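*** Protein under study ***
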Amino acid sequence: MKKSIIVAASFLLALAACEERGEQFHVKGEIGQAADKVLYFEEAALDGIKVLDSVKLDKQGRFSFSHKRPDGPDFYRLRVDGQVVNLGIDSTETVTIKGSLPSLATAYTVEGSVECEKIKELSSKQMALQEQIRLLASRQLPIGDFRDSVDRMVSAYKQQICRDYIYSNPRAGYAYYALFQRINGGQLFSTEGLTREDVRAFGAVATSWDMCYPHSLRTVNLHNIAMRGMKNSRKPTVTTIPEELIHEVTLLDLALPDLRGATRRLTDLKGKVVLLDFTTYQNQASPARNIALRELYDKYATRGLEIYQVSFDADEHFWKTSADNLPWICVRDASGSSAQTYRVSALPTYFLIDRGNALYKRSSDIKDADQLEAEIEKLLR
């Protein structure tokens, strides 16, 4: 009996140790021509660079670091002798870095992480653009011609980064990394006076991160930037509503394009009970959620239920493919303006609208699927 207890205790200790190790990621490798140099392993946190560990390299330049896995994609770096290698970590991967001084920052190799490979690509492209600008400056062009040329180069670069690294996979860590690149000492995508292009880029990543990594501090940071940008990029307008129509205006209208490009207005659905749904199809839970909505729709559509589903997916082709077989009204808001209109701070969020075009309840007021169905039943009577 005593022996069994000892064996069981040993097993539990071993299991706990395995679980603890399993919650870590690992960075290892070799750096040539770096004997006796100190290699620092650092976290690139929102509030600055923090040293996590360090090691004095031997003649082989071998190193190995381990650290607790982050809650969502996060960023780290290796630094030695003024050379920096940026890393993106999103799980318990083992990343292998190999390179040599003095060209470590530009000529290293990476294995074991797509995130780190993409970040290397982004860093290389950033440095290449910076070099092109330096060479252009050396030609001593008139200041106006120089600025115009730089603006064109940066604009083309931003379009490529948006297409290949942000909109292609906005939930990725490298999409976040791309948003905060710097050119000529300034932000490539401004975090303050955002242009419409910047707002769309930040909004795409913020929407995906809200869904995939809701507990990450970086998600909160992205969300705040995106919402501030949407607010500041719109000039306030004053609209005069005829007095005789004021009593009819009971919800804020939306007019968005559907799969075929036709504009679908929310207020045109007056007379039906409407579930106004804000979502993104790139969320992993989206297919299962749409199956549940399909059951509701099939059950109540003939009695007057309609679903007006607003997608914030950055990838238009992905949205069209995902929504093509859905029987309700599917529209897409590329700018994200409807999120501000309805004060949507998390996805998915939905609202119930009665037959008279009046807002009835939002998802935060409904505790579960059973209550949602009961509320729909009540409005359909």
Observations:
- The mean pLDDT is 84.
- The longest helix spans residues 114-138.
- The chain is about 40% helix and 25% strand.
- The first strand starts at residue 24 and ends at 32.
